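FORM 7B: Structural annotation worksheet

SECTION A. Query
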Amino acid sequence: MKKLVFSIIILTFSFSCFSQSSFFDNYVYQSWSEFGGLSGTTANDIYQTRDGYIDIGTYEGLVKFDGVEFTTLNRISNKEYDFVSARTIIQDSRGDIWVGSNDEGLHRISDAGNKTYKIENGLPNNSVRALCEDTIGNIWVGTASGVVYITPDGKLINPQFGAGTTANGVIASNLFCDDHGRIWLTTSNENGLFLCEDGVFKPREEFEKYSTYFATAIYQDHKGTFWVGLGDKGIATMHNNKVTLLKTDTLLDHTPTCTILEDDNDVIWFGTEHGLVVYANNKFEEYKGAPELTDSNINRIIQDREDNIWFATDRNGIGKMTHGKFIMHRLGKTVNSIVEAPDGKIWAATDKGLLCYENDEPVENTLTRYTKDLRVRHVEATTDGKILVSCYTKPAQLIYDGKTIKSWDSDNGLAGNKVRVAIETDKDEYYVGTTTGLSIIHKDGSIVSLKQNTGDLDTEYVMAIYKDTHGIVWVGTDGGGIFLLKNEKVFSHLTSADGIAGNVIFKINQDANGNFWVCTGSGITRIKDFDTTRISRLECNTINSENGIGTNSIFQIMFDASNDAWITNNHGLASLSMTEIEELFEGKRQSLTTKYYNRNDGLDSDGATSTARAIIDSMGRLWIPLVDGIAVYDPQKIRKSTILPLVQIETITIDSVTHQNTGELIVLKPGTKRIDIKYTGISFDAPERLTFSHMLTGFDKDYTIPSSERVVSYTNLAPGKHSFLVYAINGNGLQSNNDEMMFFYQKPYIWQRPIFWVVLFSLLAGTGIAYFLIREHRIKMENIRLEALVQARTVDLEIEKDKSDKLLRSILPDKIADKLKETTGDKSFGEDFENVTLLFSDIVGFTKVSSGHNAKEIVKALNNLFTRFDERAKDMGVEKIKTIGDAYMAACGVPEANENHARIMIEFAKGMLRDLAEYNETADIKFQIRIGLNCGPVTAGVIGTHKFIYDVWGNTVNVASRMETAANPGGIRITEDLKEHLSDQKDLKFSEPIECQVKGKGKMKTYDVL
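SECTION B. Predicted structure
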């Protein structure tokens, strides 16, 4: 009796499990601890940084995880890090990573340089318990003795605590920044929930009604509601300052909550001291799955960029919960075949009867009740909606028209009672395959059986039946190959001798192009362009384990709308690219990229049986029969994921010495024998299916075929620059959008440099021809001497010509010099210019100033001063005309016209005064000059044939000279004509008119330049 009760309880529990769906049904949990590569069983914190890595805080250090490998960072592994333990982790808005250690202070890891904060820097305590960043970039630090925050410029500030609260006695447990940028704090103290307002932490009065409580977690969801863990008092919500203590009927009601997270699907996750609870679809549900999580103290929950949920636990390391790609119908019994009826219902044949699904929900009907506990091996739907049910015992073969059930067995003439498969070949006519022969049921109910003893079938065990588009029925057997029938007669027999992979036939079907696909125990065979008139010359292509599919036993192949093939085999379920298959058959590739699905994808099963028949339904979804239920997969839904994988180059090992990748150019010394580049992909959605393609310029011609290898080696690189590029492809075929790059420069040996071979070849060539040169040397010496003499004379002439040309250009303007060089005979000539500004300057009291100095000193002083004027003239486009004693004459507008001549000469005159002032600062003989300017027409040219100079003449010149005489010492005097010429130059300032007597002109209005 006790055994019976126990059985009933178990059955009731099993039924409830199968009939009631759970939020966690389609989540897959995977965990890592010290046995899975994590350093230690305690994970204090978990965080995903921008580079994609999962960072884990442990007592052994900061651990970075790429989905495959763990790397521990601490001061033991790398002296750049000044900590051993990592208790809490965040990455701020600037990209810096902050690590709070157990008793070693706070550590900032930054590209700008790492920094450590301890008690001596202003930290209240070296045990850092909580971290968060506010909206203006302050980093808040909760320690075992209070709270501080660090401003973006590095200042540590101690916030105040309200009256009655001892700041130094505060043991921080959580810090949280809400939607308004306010900082919340929970502490290990009684009634330890605080909000920082106006720089002061104040306790929340709303919770005083609970007298003594311990706040263990706080979180704000997207609706603005706060969720607060109140220790063993349960979980409370606060909205608009109204607090409600919830009744969840889960462990939340009596177990302290350690961490809270709302994911992108509005599901709220609660990590407690003894397991996990979620709030989804307006109800709370407790996780009762993997033992690694059900009773764990969960320190932190996060969601990564691919929507996986991660857990840091106290005793069981870390865990990842992934939303499975498959909808699992966990039935606890083997499913053998699935079919979709014309009305959209899904029928499933199991070892314990027939199941029916309507709108993906199980329903009962006459047929499901009739077949209960029958071992059904196959189910088929006819075009008019009848359901064919093949049983492995009496009543053998059933047909259901929606109202009545009819059956056939060996008593009615069926070949046997163990029916494996049945199809409708024509309306109301059926081919039924048994383990002891093939039976054909006619419209009138009569049955014809084909068996060994009738001489029709060499092998009676029928595994598959298929009617093709030509009306031919293909009958696959267990070891006897395929029999082809037309008009109920066998007219051909195909075996491995005819090109098909094997003689154990699991399934036969056609693709959209009419090609036949035969699944056997020795591979898949495609029969192209099948023609009954040339069966002996079948065009067959086979795929097997040699082509990368991992097995030879292929149970079934199907084709979805996205040109992908799906296969079931003894390794499970896999997908293949039809494009790759075509390339394989065309000889363009040797292997296929086979994507297998497993528990990490949500396919939590031991797989399908060898005879199971899966389908692709009218919505493109795969229904896969399994040994313990049904898995449904929607390729289109899965392909909607747009999260691209990331790729990182981690290290380079150069002749056994490993270096971190810094992004800088890596210089390899001559003779470097081997480099190993280690890279990784960051995608936690089935990381084991990540593949990589890489290329090294100057070594590889193109990117390599994608593979799962994460280290590539190169030996004896050619000298020169190389770029290594790598990209990652995740399990959904999405490629990282940017190649990760690393740059090398392989330094060459001396003999590997082109110049070495140039020199060597030159030496060899020189040695080879030296003999012939010596023989001809004596003959050529005299000619060479004479030619050298002529060349020397020519060079001397050129040198002298250059000297004379330079001398001529130092005396005359370039234009005039060129004209004189081209002129033969009389060198004199003149030109008229309409608009020219003339300048005269003179040293005031030169005779008196120079007295007491010898000629050498006077010439040196004048040369020093006039050289400054010459350089300024050259820079400003002013033509120096000549110096006459201590006078300096210059012009602008000759020998090349210049429309800005007046302004240029004013600026030149001012510059002369500045040059004079600069000269006088250090000169032994100090001078004072006066300057006069006038503008107007002049005649310019060269006179004479000996000692000629370029000069200007005319009334304009004379008046300019008079202006210099009329000028005050240190002043610039101009004529009224020049002032009028400068009337549009508003920035120039002039004195009031000054009348002065000008020789030959009488009284003239003149002006001083101010």
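SECTION C. Observations
The longest strand covers residues 829-843. Confidence is low (pLDDT under 50) at residues 1-19.

SECTION D. Sign-off
Analyst initials: ____
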